[in-house]
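Margin note: ligand = cobalt (II) ion.
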Amino acid sequence: MIGRLNHVAIAVSDLAAASALYRDTLGAHVTAPVALPEHGVSVVFIALPNSKIELMEPLGANSPIAAFLAKNPDGGMHHICYEVSDILDARARLKAGGARVLGDGTPKIGAHGKPVLFLHPKDFNGTLIELEQV
Ligand code: CO
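Resulting structure:
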């Protein structure tokens, strides 16, 4: 059901500093920051030859990554995103298998303008999983 690895997301407390680190020290191309108020984060993407890295900084008072950064003040790996061809079919199969979909289970539009869902990390080896329909 899952396809390519779309991206690995890293939570950071300072998006400008993290972007500079990837651009200047690691020599990567970093996109301009984009605010995603519905997700409570601002993000940049780093294109790699075979995938992408998403750097996320909290946005707003109720950011879902605020608690993560309180526990991990240096930042850290937050989620991985797999591609699926049909997100509603994927949701039905996952729910039938007992997996928990976060929020109200309705796909939101993610950073690439495509529908995304998140799956409970306790159901997937302690890893928060994002599914993106491509
Ligand atoms: Co993501």
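DSSP finds three helices and eight strands in the chain.
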